[in-house]
């Protein structure tokens, strides 16, 4: 039989060629020796001229033998590779695959880190809640916590519900879904890379061991929500004893559960490592993201505008600037339809003046023009469906005609697997946002913060952080004529002179974690040294 592991097809042919050469040369020598003996049996009184004649004959015969066997060997090899299968007594070991195996790999795969060996204190299961980037940050936190507690982390379950799931329903959903592999995770992230790239820090499994899975199926698992903005000592003193007691602990809320500041440097650096290295999107998402960036680059530089003006955002925030009466009523009904959205009565005007509303498309247009963003720039809209549609986008499209979206750059067939999957669509926008020449978010949501931090990590790429509170005040003054365009533009530029993603220290506000700078928007422990930051 053909044994590929012992010899490739080319090696076998080479061996056969050597055998043919050996036989051919041997036969040629035998012929020459036989002829020489015959010649010696003849009269020994031949003249010197006869000896020279015999030498010529000997050389001709030797050359002919070599040429004959060379032709036989080449014809045999040619027939083996190219000849019809019917002429071969056994399938050839030579295949295209075996030929490719001999080629050096063009992509060097880095070796996996060695496994970290530690005494396992139990198993930690987590159900991430919120949108893609809120869950992304939570995964980084949970890996760091699992590492610190010396427990085994089960691949996190991702939020499958829209508009930020009701925590009362999360437990029921999670206990059912965690009985099998977290398919949601591997629909967005490369789960095998996630597990293997972090194996030197923490043990991660796709599912519980069989002996513990039955307990999960019966609902005999302790479930709880950890306290928000806790430091690592809380997990060591409160969470670890529960894991040791129950062997399995399920955390059903993961948003903002680890404090921004005051953590050991090893914890902070591990959060960065998971975010920037351990979490990689699936090959399908990565490839499509590269294609979008390539299409944009073919037409020059581009700006990504994270225009957070979707219906759910406006309903939740209660921001209705520029909406008509019918739209205001629709947004209000939606807000009351979700009982877990606690704030119902909202003063939109007051909230806007405090800088707590996302900028409208019209306000965004004025800001871009005041910042002298080139009208010929491509502007990629990283967002869902804009509330109000073309009517609300008219001023932006007039000032910046090169507006594009992933839906306009790609064929519908390219996005067929992403339709109705908001997290996968958000993943595409995330990849494009990282590669843009300029990134401008109109609201400081989770995507804006995480992309800001990632762009800092990539070399402080230009990220313009709009000061909404000052902007709306300037816009209102310009609208009523209190400021000329030049005065308005100058004021906007001065306001944002130092808001382009430059190196800076995180703002720390003790006991007010929601008001201080988010760790993932400026992970300074992973960027510049404290000395270099303090000198700025």
Short description:
With 536 residues, the chain is mainly α.
Total of DSSP H or I helical runs spanning 4+ residues: 22
First and last CA, distance? 72 Å
The biggest beta sheet is recorded as: 5 strands, parallel
Oligomerization category of the chains in this entry: single chain
Q: Within the largest sheet, what's the order of strands?
A: 3-2-1-5-4
Helical residue percent?
40-55%
Structural domains: how many: 3
Rounded average pLDDT? 82
Please compute the radius of gyration using only Cα atoms: 36 Å
CATH C-level of the largest domain: Alpha Beta
Tell me, what's the shape? globular
Structural class: mainly alpha
Membrane topology: Single-pass type II membrane protein
Family: Belongs to the glycosyltransferase GT106 family.
Keywords: Carbohydrate metabolism, Fucose metabolism, Glycoprotein, Glycosyltransferase, Membrane, Signal-anchor, Transferase, Transmembrane, Transmembrane helix
GO molecular function, one term: glycosyltransferase activity
Question: What does the model show?
Answer:
The chain folds into 3 domains: 9-37 and 52-101; 123-278; 283-309 and 358-502, Rossmann fold, CATH 3.40.50. The protein is 51% helix and 6% strand. The protein has 22 helices and 9 strands. The chain has helices at residues 9-41, 48-82, 96-101, 132-149, 167-177, 183-188, 191-197, 210-217, 232-246, 265-278, 283-297, 311-317, 325-337, 348-353, 361-370, 389-399, 406-409, 422-435, 446-457, 468-479, 485-495, 530-534, and strands at residues 123-126, 152-154, 204-205, 222-224, 248-251, 302-306, 378-381, 403-404, 438-441. The strands form 2 sheets. It has a 5-stranded parallel beta sheet with strand order 3-2-1-5-4, with helices on one face. Strand 7, helix 16 and strand 8 form a beta-alpha-beta unit. Helix 4 (132-149) crosses helix 10 and helix 15 (361-370) runs parallel beside helix 16. The chain is globular. It starts with 8 loop residues before the first helix and ends with a helix.
